[in-house]
UniProtKB/TrEMBL annotation:
GO terms for molecular function: hydrolase activity. Residues 27-226 form the Fumarylacetoacetase-like C-terminal domain. The keyword Hydrolase applies. Pfam families: FAA_hydrolase (PF01557). Keywords: Hydrolase, Metal-binding. This is Fumarylacetoacetate hydrolase family protein.
Amino acid sequence: MTDIPAAWAPPSLPIAGHDATFPVRRIFCVGRNYSEHVREMGEDSRELPFFFMKPADSLLPEGRNFPYPSETQNVHHEVELVVALHKEGRNIPRPKAREHIFGYGVGLDMTRRDLQGEAKQKGRPWEVGKAFDHAAPCSRLYPAAEIGHPTEGRIALSVDDEERQVGDLSQMTWAVDELLSYLSRYFTLLPGDLVYTGTPAGVGPVLPGNRLHGTIERIGDLTCQVMPAAAQG
């Protein structure tokens, strides 16, 4: 009998001000949730939320470098508010949604834009453009019990100190409680789930050597260095 591989250890995120970590189960992402980003992607309508997923092991906790992925010439940054859940729920009423939130973080939905665009044109799934290795950088989590539930505040991303993206959480088409309520109609949300809540306008390409810095007012920030694939840190 061949050896059985060791059990997979779930990825986790540090928790600000605490020694404990937050084990991550699944990563849900919502598309086109800021009106200016909708327009820059060639759309102009308020549609119902739609979601895609990244594997949990695409998580890249803060302090680690982002290796430029293979088979692409056009990787984009997308800074996002990340919501971490600690309570199971299905068909969650909007007024009850916050009860399921453990905390918040700053995330980057890294995207192989050329491969995503090709998939869109051919009517294919987005995984090749969105779900690759290290595609979900994320900061430490900030517990809602300590910072509350921000519904407004500046969200921004700079590349090598040049500001590329800027917006406000209040500009979300669908607020966090609406997103969780809607998503829970299709999935039983579980402790350890993360929800990336969409990005403001200004998405653009990154190159090896770039330093990315995302920040969200009242929550925190995330710094990530882009490295050649062979120089993963």
